[in-house]
Specification:
Structural class: mainly alpha
Order of helices and strands: HHHHHHHHHHHHHH
Radius of gyration: 21 Å
Largest sheet: none
Number of helices: 14
Helix content: over 70%
Strand content: under 5%
């Protein structure tokens, strides 16, 4: 009997980890850790100031981000159950292993934990308007609306998910905002240095959040191509259904080319600093795979082709995030 219950518990635990897409949650945590320790900390240290967001608050924000993302995956699968029966019949968790009512309970619990932690961090950082808290609350609402409505609409769902992906980086920038109310000379000089650090951090934040937005948009469109059969059966108005497959390929390909061009320009700028390892890494492990993805997208014909491309884009997302390590190496 004990062995039976242990096996059942392990089976449900594994199913739950599949439901919340645990590799994606690890990816979110790694992204925020790397951005903080490889970019935020060195940028502020260069100006001899201390970032407002400390290790404890960083850990709490990461937990909040992971909880909110996990809740989003749960509610997405909850409302996508019928579509998934067509597109991914072997990967269904809800109803097969976890009951629908428990899925809703876990969604609400994880969302609540994420939002409460976000408000706590906001207040602890002296943010009286609780910008971080209300922003993450907006993320929870956006994920619910996406799952119930926008995912089935033309383009708006793709853009929304891309914005939320970029937010995992942006939130760490906004967490650095400080309000100084002292007026002596030493404090004024410190504030000036802090503002200079924020200015440089803003540029790097735009670079990585922009990368996250564009590559996420490309992947979301490719996933629409992959899930076209189930989406069409249940009346979704995604891009390949409304505009057709050729136009959808062009849309994704153009954004991928834009990303390739921007990354290439950035590398030519980086060359003047002698960051040759970073340049080689970007061309070999980010730009070259993106060129391959564009080529393969043009020739893709079936679900397995689009699935491979979606996986390839995710790998490029990972190599792109890992490039943050070079800022730590060269700073």
């Amino acid at each position: 009997m004990i062995r039976y219950h242990c096996n059942r518990f392990m089976k449900i635990a594994i199913a739950f980890l599949r439901l919340v897409r645990w590799p994606n949650l690890v990816f979110i945590a790694v992204t925020q850790l790397l951005f903080y320790y490889c970019i935020v900390v060195p940028v502020f240290a260069e100006k001899s100031v201390v970032p407002d967001l400390g290790t404890t608050h960083l850990a709490l924000l990461i937990i909040a981000s992971v909880c909110i993302a996990a809740a989003g995956y749960i509610i997405n699968d909850y409302f996508d159950l019928n579509i998934d029966r067509v597109n991914k019949p072997n990967r269904i968790v809800i109803e097969k292993l976890i009951k629908r009512r428990w899925a809703i309970v876990w969604h609400l619990l994880l969302s609540l934990i994420g939002v409460v932690i976000s408000f706590y961090v906001s207040i602890s950082l002296g943010d009286m308007i609780c910008f971080l808290g209300f922003s993450n609350l907006a993320c929870v609402i956006a994920l619910w609306v996406y799952s119930t409505t926008y995912k089935r609409k033309l383009l708006i769902g793709n853009v929304l998910i891309s914005v939320l992906t970029a937010w995992t980086v942006l939130i760490l920038y906004f967490a650095q905002w400080q309000h100084f109310d002292a007026g002596d000379k030493i404090i004024r000089e410190y504030v000036q240095h802090y503002e200079l650090a924020l200015t440089k951090l803003f540029k790097l934040t735009i670079l990585y959040s922009g990368f996250a937005f564009i590559i996420s948009l490309v992947r979301e469109v490719i996933k629409d191509l992959e899930d076209m059969d189930g989406d069409m059966k249940y009346g979704c108005k995604t891009m390949p259904i409304v505009w057709g497959i050729p136009v959808t390929k062009v849309f994704a390909g153009v954004w991928a080319v834009v990303l390739i061009a921007v990354l290439a320009i950035v590398q030519f700028y980086v060359m003047q600093f002698g960051w040759w390892g970073s340049v080689a890494y970007c061309f070999i492990l980010i730009i070259a795979p993106l060129v391959w993805i564009v080529y393969k997208l043009y020739h893709a014909q079936n679900v397995s082709d689009y699935h491979r491309l979606s996986t390839a884009v995710k790998v490029v997302m990972f190599t792109g995030i890992l490039s943050m390590l070079f800022f730590r190496i060269y700073q």
